[in-house]
Amino acid sequence: MPAPIRLRELIRTIRTARTQAEEREMIQKECAAIRSSFREEDNTYRCRNVAKLLYMHMLGYPAHFGQLECLKLIASQKFTDKRIGYLGAMLLLDERQDVHLLMTNCIKNDLNHSTQYVQGLALCTLGCMGSSEMCRDLAGEVEKLLKTSNSYLRKKAALCAVHVIRKVPELMEMFLPATKNLLSEKNHGVLHTSVVLLTEMCERSPDMLAHFRKLVPQLVRILKNLIMSGYSPEHDVSGISDPFLQVRILRLLRILGKSDDDSSEAMNDILAQVATNTETSKNVGNAILYETVLTIMDIKSESGLRVLAINILGRFLLNNDKNIRYVALTSLLKTVQTDHNAVQRHRSTIVDCLKDLDVSIKRRAMELSFALVNGNNIRGMMKELLYFLDSCDPEFKADCASGVFLAAEKYGTDSLTSLHVTAVLSCVLAGSYVRDDSVPNLIQLITNSVEMHAYTVQRLYKALLDDISQQPLVQVASWCIGEYGDLLVSGQCEEEEPIQDEVLDVLEGLLVSNLSTPVTRGYALTAIMKLSTRFSSVNRIKKVVSIYGSSIDVELQQRAVEYNALFKKYDHMRPALLERMPIMEKTATNGPTEIVQTNGETEPSAVEPKHPPPVTQPANQVRTPYSGSYSEQDSSAVTTQFSHDIITFPPSVFQTFQLQLLSPSSNVVPALNQGTVTQVIRVLNPQKQQLRMRIKLTYTHKGSPVQDLAEVNNFPPQSWQ
Amino acid sequence: MIRFILIQNRAGKTRLAKWYMQFDDDEKQKLIEEVHAVVTVRDAKHTNFVEVWDQLVSYALSVLFPQFRNFKIIYRRYAGLYFCICVDVTDNNLAYLEGIHNFVEVLNEYFHNVCELDLVFNFYKVYTVVDEMFLAGEIRETSQTKVLKQLLMLQSLE
Fold it and tell me: Which SUPFAM superfamilies match (chain A) (predicted)?
């Protein structure tokens, strides 16, 4: 059998292949040759063959038949053989094959070998792919090597120990004695790996954490030496001595100082020193600063230090390097909850980042902007965010839209209503995602902003012309057209004015389209009906309505029949009924109910506020002012049905109060003043607004219904102050 | 900790793949393809970090490998090669970026102005360099002089 070709030859040959098929053919041929060579148990060329096999494996071809050969190579005495053997083991074997257990004995022998390089190889392999069983068997050896004086081996042993701990956490105690003098090493490499080992131990076990807290002064000293010492050519990177070690020490300090006051105090000085002395012109310095900032945020640092950290992040945001901006935005996102005010100072820079080119920076800037919106800056922020919503990628539109909507809801006030409406309109026009229950909210908003009606209906009409697939948009649009259709065709349009027939075409199109849900169709039908009082083409509307009188959809059919009746029998009532909606007050019983023209008669449903209201005042017991007037002579009892409506004053402030209505004690008021009915209402009044209540009582007395209205203004001041 | 290190060229050929975590062979192949897909479409205006929930492309990664939600990829492009390191989300991005650069500088010194062909023909030596600088998913030795000294010693044993 001729000598197998050398590795170089093989690589060169494979690279000359011009097609995938040619390459595969070459490889198959070579594999066959290798397999027969393995069968012959040829020691001299085994190394070469396995190397070739590994190359083919790297190209993506299967190479399992070489696993046993790797083991044989490991067992050989030659260093080159061992090297390729271990490499093959790391590439081809893993925990799931049983073969790897055979390696254990070999590794054990090699760990005790006389040459440090062989020991190093063995440690390396164990550290990369040792399974739990192997780790358990060999932990003792690793621990022994951890104590040796050879720094080359000590480094490897330390990281190997990290791997062992990750696989078998119970063995952690075994390495404890060896860690005693690890930090007193001079060798940076050993120091580095020891810090990693300590970090791993502290992360895994709180006992170790407590045990190692006493090392904090030592770590601080090492860090100080690193910063203060002069130029050290070996570990220097762009003028900073051993930045990797600095970063790792900072990380360990972070873990040790978390939720521990004494350690945090010991670290304060050094953290401030690192933060101010590190050069920021290169990426290296910024890496260290970043780690410092993370540490300051996590431990119990004093507020001056925290402000320093946030200022560093602010400086990062102005950096040209986008990596650093990205990193700063990520950290600010984490700290914005706790250090809100400090982050506010950098708001303008953050908003500028919305215009960045990188997608991930934009996303983080957007989230941060939403977190920073408050009552003071909402006007400016909203402008920027709306601009962003218009120009951003589709994958952002959903989140941005819902964010803008939430912000507008939370902080929009009456004076900003037009802004509010524009904001919300933009969201809806963005189309992709609006919450389902936002449709009634939006409708209410539009109703209340009287001066915006014309503009609103124009924009929505235009949007409807483009696209009728987004249901929330279509619903809101058709409602608006129904209400304000006269404004649409009256000449107030800035652009081309649609004529009545066009508008009706659009609405009819909605009715027949496959994209419309039944709810949308209901909206469209009602809108058409309302237009009968605003437009002049009544006959056409009558025709449409009568067609749907025989629709399969029950809801549509019912509506159509009722509207038909309206045309025929109650035509005199039609204008009054289809009048424009009045301004609606935001009632407490908010929820996904359809906005129906009501007089405020709502059932006292138990409205659960989002958080249970802190009972800051004792629950108000309401007595009807008429408790004295039911002295009827007959003894029939009065069955009452209480229905309240609590309206906020002034009505334009939304949701100043939150209510919790509990059920009344009974729904029968006994006659002859023999008893009372009480109903407890819990009011959450965070803004200390004056409490007034309007009550409407509907009850049946002697079988006939009676209605009574009352207002309660005389709540004692201490109940709402 | 580091989960894996990959060196790929623009065409998608793997020049080095070092795994510090268990994956099946087909999972490894899938990962290599996905990483390549994510990394090659990015240009100078993108950051050097890919976190899974940012990109729609890497969404595929997170669906195939649910544990990938806790990882991120830090990569850097040198000529026609992409050096990618996959780390935990909590790790320091900038420090690993420096780590990649450190590694590339060592390669450059060792192979005397390294080019892609060097990595192809001497792949086992590249693995040795990796093992000298990284171990068990952590950075082991950061001093370039020391690493080069060791490598020369090892070479003399051959």
Answer: ARM repeat (SSF48371), Clathrin adaptor appendage domain (SSF49348)
